C-alpha cells in the first residue's frame, strides 16, 4: 500500500498510519454491533480506570507542562494543557455522562413498504473510523474516545505535540480497559509517535479513515480543510454577529450582548460583532457601549458608531476605529467590532459576507424583520432575542459534542452522537424482482 | 480572487468559474426562499419550453452526434449522447414529475423547547450551489437543473465535451424561462466554454461551490474525488454482490439473480458477483449457471465453482476461470463472477473487502444468517431475498434521483431532493442569556 504520486509523507509513515486505521476499522466492525448495555459498561469502566489511575496521567502531564513552560508557552495554552487529578476526575465524569446518553445506533430513520411488498428501512449505523486532529488539550482525548465508542466508531487521534506524554498515559488506560472488556484496543489509537507526519498521513488516508474532524484554532482547521483527501467536517471558527434591529428592545439587547460577548471569552459561540440599525443607533449605542465598557470590552467601531460613542463621553470606554480587517476577525478576546447599518438588508448582506457561518442573533420585536433575518442568514444557527452562547451540544440537549460544524455537508451546528453516524438501507423481501 | 499557490488552472479561468458560482450563489439566496408553488410553476414552464423548442435542442444534438460519430465514439456512448425530439419530450415529462414532488425545504427536522423556553427548530434548507461534473448525457442537464431548482439550489454544470452544443441549447431554454419568471438565469450555468479547465476550476472553487457531484464512469468519479477541494459526494460505482446462503431458496435465488444481472446491464445496481455457500453449491450452481447461460451471461468462476459448473455440462455455457482482478471489477456487461464460499462469514468478509459499498443481497431463509448479513455488510443498501436492481431513487419513492451515494458522509444510497439539503437551527427567544 502506498499513497501514490502525491505522497507528502514517507511511505513508511503512511503505511503505518493506514495499518492503524485498518486495524481500527476491523475492530470497529465488532463494536458497531455491540449493544448499548455493553458499550455503557465499557464507558463506566473507562471512567473508573481514569479515576483509579489519575496519578499516572497527572504525572505524565507534569512533564508535558514543564517542557511547554520552558519552551515559553503562553498562560492560556498552558491552562488548556493542564490535566491534573481534578481535571482527570472531571473528564471521567464526562465519560459517565456519555454512558447515560441514548444510543443513536439502530434508529430507523425512515421505514416503509414499497408497493411490491419490499420492506425498506433506513437504519442509523456508525460512520466507521473517525480521525481527530486537535491541539494540546488532553481532555479532548477522553471526550472524543468516549463519544466515538458510544456511537460505535473507532478513533484515530493526533493530539498535539505538547500533550504527547499526557495523551499516551490516557490512551494506555483506555486501551487497557478495552482489552479487559473483550474489545480490541485498536479501537482507540494515536499517531502521535509520527509527529506532524502522522497528521499529514491521516489527511492522505482516504479509504482508511472515514472522516477527519479538526478541532482547534482557525489555522489548524484551514490546513486540514485545504490538504485532506479524507472527507472533513469543518468546525469551530465563529465570527459571530448580533444585529440590533430598529424594532429591537434595548432591555433585551443589553443583557444579551453582554452575555454573548463576556460570559465566556475565547469560545467559538461568543459574539464578536455588533451591528445596530441607524434609526436606533443614537439611542442604543451609548447605552450598549457603556455596558460593554463596564465589562472591559474594547470597541472597534466604524465611523458612524465611533462618532456616536465618542460623543457620548462614556467613562472608561476603550474605543478604536475599526479597519476592514476587523469585519473578518474572530477576536476570541474582550474586543467587539461595532457597526451602524442603514437597514435590515444591509445587516443581512454584511453578515452573510463576513460570517464564518456559526451563529448570529437578531434583537427585534418586528415580526417581518425576524422572518427576514432567520430566513436569509446563511449560518448554522440563527438566534432571535437570545444569546449566541446557546449554540452548544450540551445546551441543545445532545449531552456532549464532538464540535460545532460550520459546513453544510453531513452535519451543521453542534455535533453530538447522532451526527457521528451514517445510515444503511435494508430491504426485507420475499423474492421481489424488478419488472 | 486567486486560487493561490496550488493553482492548476489559469487564474483567468478560475476567476471566471468562481464569478459564475458567486452569481449563482447570489441568485440562490432568492430561490432558497421561493415557495413550492412558484418553483413548480417555473418547472412546468421549463417543461413546456423544452417541448416547444425541442427542435433547437435536437438540431444542436445532430451536430454533436455527427462530430462524435466521426471521432469514432462507440455505439453505447452515442446512444447516451442522443437527445432527439422524443428524448427531449421524455426529459420534459421528467421535469413535470419533479414539479409534483413534495418540497423538502422548510421541513422541521427536530424542534423542541429548551428548559429556559428558547424554542429550537432544526429546519431543512438548500445546500446552496451544487456543482455537477458528468459525461456526455444531455438528459442529465435537464434532470439536474430541475432537481436543483425544486430543492432551492443553484447548479453549475460541466457536461462533457461531446455534448457541448446540445447542453448549450438546453441551458439557453432553461435560462430564458428563468428570466421570464423573474428568476436570475445565473441559477443554472455551465462552465463548458472552459473545457477541462472548467471542471478543474470547479474542483478548486472551495467556498464558491458548496458540493460537487461527479456522475459517470469510475475514472471520472475517482478523478474528482482525488482532486477536489470542494466537498464531493461520491456516486455510482457498483461492484454488487448476491450471496446464496446454505439456507437459501433456489426458487427465489434464480429469478433474483437473473433479474439483478440481466434486467438492465450497464447500470450501477446490476449484480456483478455471485457467492454460493459450499453446502449448496453442488445443488444450486448448475441450476443457476444454466439460467445465466440461457441469458447469455459469461461466467468468471473460481476453482470450486468452475469445477461444479464444468462437470454439469451445461449447453452453451460460457465459462472462464476467474482471476484475482475479477473480484474488484464492475463489468457493466453480461458477465458475472462466481465464487464458492465456505461460510456466511467468508461471504461477508469477501464482500466487505471487495464491494464498492453500493448494494448487496442475501438469498436465505435462516433468520440468524439474515441478521448477520444485514448487520455486518457495510454497504449503502442491503437486500434480503430481493433483486439489487431496486436500489434506485425512483423505486425508493424519492420521485427522482441526483445519483446514488456510495460514501458515508452526508448522504448514503439514492439521493433525492431531501439529500440535496442541509439544515439551519433557529432559536426563538424572549431575551434568554446563558447562566
UniProtKB/TrEMBL annotation, chains A, B:
Record field: catalytic activity: L-glutamate 5-semialdehyde + phosphate + NADP(+) = L-glutamyl 5-phosphate + NADPH + H(+)
Gene Ontology terms: cellular component: cytoplasm
Record-linked Gene3D superfamilies: Aldehyde Dehydrogenase, Chain A, domain 1, Aldehyde Dehydrogenase, Chain A, domain 2
The keyword Oxidoreductase belongs to this UniProt entry's keyword annotation: yes
BP term (GO), one: L-proline biosynthetic process
NCBIfam families: PRK00197.1, proA
Name of the protein described by the UniProt record: Gamma-glutamyl phosphate reductase
Amino acid at each position: 500500500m502506498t499513497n501514490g504520486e502525491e505522497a507528502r509523507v514517507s511511505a513508511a509513515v503512511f503505511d503505518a498510519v493506514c495499518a492503524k486505521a485498518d486495524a481500527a476499522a476491523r475492530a470497529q466492525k465488532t463494536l458497531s454491533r455491540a449493544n448499548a448495555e455493553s458499550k455503557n459498561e465499557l464507558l463506566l469502566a473507562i471512567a473508573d480506570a481514569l479515576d483509579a489511575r489519575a496519578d499516572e496521567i497527572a504525572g505524565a502531564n507534569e512533564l508535558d507542562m514543564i517542557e511547554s513552560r520552558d519552551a515559553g508557552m503562553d498562560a492560556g495554552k498552558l491552562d488548556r494543557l493542564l490535566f491534573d487529578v481534578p481535571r482527570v476526575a472531571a473528564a471521567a465524569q464526562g465519560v459517565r455522562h456519555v454512558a447515560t446518553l441514548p444510543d443513536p445506533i439502530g434508529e430507523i430513520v425512515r421505514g416503509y413498504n414499497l408497493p411490491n411488498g419490499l420492506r425498506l428501512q433506513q437504519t442509523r449505523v456508525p460512520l466507521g473510523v473517525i480521525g481527530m486532529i486537535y491541539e494540546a488539550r488532553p481532555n479532548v482525548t477522553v471526550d472524543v474516545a468516549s463519544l466515538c465508542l458510544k456511537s460505535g466508531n473507532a478513533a484515530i487521534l493526533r493530539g498535539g505535540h505538547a500533550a504527547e506524554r499526557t495523551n499516551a498515559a490516557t490512551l494506555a488506560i483506555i486501551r487497557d480497559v478495552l482489552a479487559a472488556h473483550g474489545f480490541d484496543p485498536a479501537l482507540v489509537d494515536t499517531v502521535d509517535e509520527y509527529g506532524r507526519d502522522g497528521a499529514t498521513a491521516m489527511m492522505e488516508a482516504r479509504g482508511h479513515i472515514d472522516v477527519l474532524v479538526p478541532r482547534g484554532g482557525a489555522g489548524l482547521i484551514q490546513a486540514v480543510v485545504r490538504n485532506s483527501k479524507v472527507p472533513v467536517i469543518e468546525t469551530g471558527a465563529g465570527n459571530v454577529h448580533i444585529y440590533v434591529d430598529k424594532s429591537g428592545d434595548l432591555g433585551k439587547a443589553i443583557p444579551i450582548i453582554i452575555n454573548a460577548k463576556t460570559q465566556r471569552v475565547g469560545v467559538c459561540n461568543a459574539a464578536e460583532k455588533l451591528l445596530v440599525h441607524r434609526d436606533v443607533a443614537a439611542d442604543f449605542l451609548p447605552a450598549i457601549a457603556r455596558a460593554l465598557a463596564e465589562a472591559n470590552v474594547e470597541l472597534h467601531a466604524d465611523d458612524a458608531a465611533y462618532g456616536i460613542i465618542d460623543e457620548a463621553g462614556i467613562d472608561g470606554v476603550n474605543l478604536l476605529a475599526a479597519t476592514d480587517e476587523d469585519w473578518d476577525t474572530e477576536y476570541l478576546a474582550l474586543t467587539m467590532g461595532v457597526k451602524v447599518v442603514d437597514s435590515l438588508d444591509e445587516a443581512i448582506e454584511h453578515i452573510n459576507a463576513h460570517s464564518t457561518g456559526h451563529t448570529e442573533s437578531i434583537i427585534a420585536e418586528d415580526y417581518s424583520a425576524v422572518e427576514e433575518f432567520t430566513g436569509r442568514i446563511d449560518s448554522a444557527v440563527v438566534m432571535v432575542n437570545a444569546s449566541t452562547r446557546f449554540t452548544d451540544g450540551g445546551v441543545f440537549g445532545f449531552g456532549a459534542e464532538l464540535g460545532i460544524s460550520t459546513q453544510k455537508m453531513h452535519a451543521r451546528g453542534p455535533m453530538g452522537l447522532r451526527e457521528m453516524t451514517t445510515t444503511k438501507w435494508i430491504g426485507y423481501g420475499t423474492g421481489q424482482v424488478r419488472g
